Amino acid sequence: MTLLSPLARLLKTDLNTLLCFRENLTTEDIVSYMAEVSEIARKTSVDSAVERIRELVKEYPSCVELMHQMASLLTGLSIIVPCTAEQQERNTAVAVELFERVAESDDPAYANRARYMLASRLIQEEEYDRAGQLIDKIPTYDGLDKGQLQISMEMKKKNAGAAGKLLEQKINQLLQEVFLQLDQLATVAVWENDRDRAWALAEYAQQVMGIYGWDYSKYTVAFSVAVEEKDAEKCRELLEVMMDSLEKPVDLSESILYTHLRKKDDETQSKENNHNEPEIDGTQDGEGRNGGNEMTQQMKSALLAALEKDEKFAFLREKYGDIGKWFEKV
């Protein structure tokens, strides 16, 4: 017994981990626990969900993947269910604590992901020195592209269905990355007082996201430019268009980019209809009518919260007063 403490120090762990005889969790186990925590948050309370996370981490103190996934879940919990500012602050504190534990772990993949998340938060908090220290620890090339390797294998095997699905998922990912970079590049153009270029980039982004097939995203880069220019009238005009677009479900059947993903949704719909469940629309990410409506409300709630609290939207509050009432009318 007297050797336990020095042994724990030598192994860079603690007594709880040292004496933990449970096997590590599988990814399937972790996904199941995440679903459980989300359900607790929706049906009971956010605080109960956080308490369950603490119990799981205490039960599996050496499972780095569990800690990382639970921390990630916590950062998005306010989108899943309504949270007060105090609850969001507590959620963030627990998530940061978990990310910090993962960042110090011996698992390079998850440690680097945790450093990325922590650095992103520190940048938002303008703690650039600490963020830079974490960024320096992240390798420039953090591993090979596993997805591209899987695509190459399915192409070599001439497995059309699997290759098509993987390629469409890859395109979806790349389009979202391009969209994010265009949004930030347009913001940079405003900072450089290049107004024409900023709006040209917004128009270009609208064309790109038109190919993607989601109307809401077509206008968000333009909205970012209008916000940077503090053009309240333009912001209001764009918000009305964006809110209107959220009411229209995205139909994958109209896009040539998602043929194989649509087949998957059709198969899911067929199975569920056989169980006498409601039909599912071909909406983005396989969202059904109820799922689409829920996602729409979550997005509206998140946007309203930002409009009411974020300092960058203060000019809108000054112009229109009670932004919540105006937002409800929109």
Question: What do you see in this structure?
Answer:
It is a single chain. By secondary structure, the chain is an all-alpha fold. Among the domains are: 117 residues, Serine Threonine Protein Phosphatase 5, Tetratricopeptide repeat; 37 residues, no CATH class. Helix 13 packs antiparallel against helix 14. About 7% of the residues have low confidence.
Q: How would you briefly describe this protein structure?
A:
This protein has 330 residues and is an all-alpha fold. 74% of the residues lie in helices and 0% in strands. Among the domains are: 117 residues, Serine Threonine Protein Phosphatase 5, Tetratricopeptide repeat (Alpha Horseshoe), CATH 1.25.40; 37 residues, no CATH class.
Order of helices and strands: HHHHHHHHHHHHHHHHHH
Question: What CATH first level of the domain at 21-137 would be assigned?
Answer: Mainly Alpha
User: On the 0-100 scale, what is the average pLDDT?
Assistant: 80
Q: What structural class do you assign from the helix and strand content?
A: mainly alpha
Shape: globular
CATH topology title of the domain at 21-137: Serine Threonine Protein Phosphatase 5, Tetratricopeptide repeat
Instruction: Count all strands and give the number.
Output: 0
Radius of gyration: 23 Å
Describe the biggest sheet? none
Work out the helicity level: over 70%
Quaternary structure of the protein: single chain
Give the helix tally: 18
CATH architecture heading of the domain at 21-137: Alpha Horseshoe
Distance between the termini: 67 Å
Percent in strands: under 5%
